[in-house]
Amino acid sequence: MFERFTHDARQVVVTAQAEARALGHDWIGTEHLLTGLTGGTGLGAGVLRDLGVDTGNVRRAIAAATRPESEGDEPDPAALETIGIDLAAVRRRVEETFGPGALDRTRGTPGRRGRRAGRHVPFTAEAKRLLERALRESLKLRHRHIGTEHVLLAVTANANTRAARVLGGLGVSPTMLRRRILATLLGQADSA
Amino acid sequence: MKDTDTLTRAAGSRDPAEGLRAVASLRVLLEQLQQLQVDNARDQGWSWQDIADALGVSRQAVHKRYGGRRR
Fold first, then answer.
1. Cα separation of A153 and A178, whole Å?
2. What Å distances lie between residue A169 and A90, A144, A162, A174, A175, CA to CA?
3. What's the pLDDT score for residue A122?
4. Does A86 touch chain B (CB under 8 A)?
5. Using CB atoms, which residue from B29, B42, B70 is nearest to A27?
6. Which of B19, B24, B70 minimises the CB distance to A70?
């Protein structure tokens, strides 16, 4: 399937993987694909930007949605100081044993242990379905390649994905987005 | 300036906002350290029961929180 992907669409997947890894997530979800779509070139990215959806606000929405149970992502060193805990000293001790950044990598979130450092991050079932849907969108339009526009159309096809919910939160409805993409496609002489 | 702020804050520690903020931060730190040490224990071959005993909780609680398949 990936052979049919345009360069831009492939870049979306690459960016999505980097994004998932950077956030310490063990899976590439539809929300990471959405981040990839905002960051790239191609028709999909253009449509999103026209609707005011950029990498910044998508990332913020994802961060807000994956917030751990605790108050904040990081302990506040000043607050801890008021009860006599020197966070820097705790961090130093931990790092002596477990290496640099050991404390920060945990981020206090319960869940799967271990980092997939350097290894391939797999897709969630939802993300796989989205990419398969992108192929179907391309076929429906009788296009020869799967571009960012088809990936974005796939996002509009299911309102229950995380990507769709992020967009909903940013005031972009699936119907509106779908219409925009199709209008842009029809307005073009060529599809890139 | 920072030392004065700290002293002022410590002196005003009756403020629940301050106190609760410290507790909240301690909770985050606690969870980070717990995650780290549970990983460490598992890496060294500890069973969920061993870990639960060391933490003073049930095996089910630890397994539910840290074990099992990915989400």
1. 6
2. 38, 33, 10, 11, 14
3. 85
4. no
5. B70
6. B24
Task: Give the model's pLDDT for residue B71.
Answer: 28
Chain B nearest-CA residue for A77: B25
Q: Is A155 helix (H, G, I), strand (E, B) or coil?
A: helix
Gyration radius of chain A's alpha carbons:
20
Gap between the Cα atoms of B3 and A18, Å rounded: 41
pTM of the predicted model as reported, rounded to 2 decimal places:
0.57
Question: ipTM of the predicted structure?
Answer: 0.74
Share of residues in chain A with pLDDT > 70 (%): 87
What is the rounded distance in angstroms from the CA atom of residue A59 to the CA atom of residue A31?
9
Out of B13, B31, B70, whose CB is closest to A108? B31
Residues of chain B contacting residue A20, judged by C-beta atoms under 8 Å apart:
none
Inter-residue contact A163 to A155 (CB < 8 Å): yes
Residues in Cβ contact with A16 at an 8 Å cutoff, skipping those fewer than 6 apart: A28, A32, A33, A35, A36, A127
* Dihedral sign (CA A160, A163, A169, A171): negative
Residues 6+ apart with CB under 8 A from A63: A73
